């Protein structure tokens, strides 16, 4: 993560994992990948990766013109609170269900 932050791009940790055929920069080839509808979420109290999902959404939707991406930020939630917070079953999960229902294949 530190390597990505210092370089301001999504990079593999170590080139010694070359046999995995990781790209030099993860998003370079994104237009050649069929990306399903994608929901990125965060809490406004996220202190672990502040702004990361919002920036990813902006890059995917604007810079790479991927139209099926959405971003939702939840007030009062931190990094893991989205999935394990006290009220996430009532405040967050309904948004997940709505997104899945809107994008399910018939």
Secondary structure elements and pairings:
Blueprint: H1 2-7, E1 38-43, H2 52-63, E2 69-74, H3 81-84, H4 88-91, H5 93-103
Parallel strand pairs: 1-2
Question: What is the gist of this entry?
Answer:
The chain has 106 residues and is an alpha+beta fold. It has five helices and two strands. The longest helix is centred in the middle third of the chain and has 12 residues, at 52-63.
Structure explained in plain terms:
Helix content is 35%, strand content 11%. The protein has a two-stranded parallel sheet with strand order 1-2. The protein has helices at residues 2-7, 52-63, 81-84, 88-91, 93-103, and strands at residues 38-43, 69-74. With 106 residues, the protein is an alpha+beta fold. The longest helix has 12 residues, at 52-63. Strand 1, helix 2 (52-63) and strand 2 (69-74) form a beta-alpha-beta unit.
Sketch the topology as an H/E string, one letter per element. Answer: HEHEHHH
Number of helices: 5
Low-confidence stretches: none
Average predicted confidence as pLDDT: 82
- Give the biggest sheet: 2 strands, parallel
Bulk shape: globular
Q: Report how far the terminal alpha carbons are from each other.
A: 38 Å
Helix % is 25-40%
The strands making up the biggest β-sheet line up spatially as 1-2
Number of strand elements = 2
Range of strand content? 5-15%
Q: Which structural category fits the helices and strands?
A: alpha+beta
As a whole number of angstroms, the C-alpha radius of gyration is 16 Å
């Amino acid at each position: 993560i530190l390597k990505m932050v210092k370089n301001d791009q999504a990079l593999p940790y170590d080139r010694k994992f070359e046999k995995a055929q990781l790209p030099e920069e993860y998003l370079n080839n994104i237009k050649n990948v069929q990306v399903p509808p994608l929901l990125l979420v965060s809490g406004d109290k996220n202190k672990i990766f502040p702004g990361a999902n919002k920036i990813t959404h902006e890059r995917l939707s604007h810079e790479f013109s991927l139209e099926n991406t959405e971003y939702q930020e939840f007030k009062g939630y931190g990094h893991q609170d989205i999935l394990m917070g006290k009220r996430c079953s009532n405040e967050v999960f309904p948004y997940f269900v709505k997104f899945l229902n809107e994008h399910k294949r018939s």
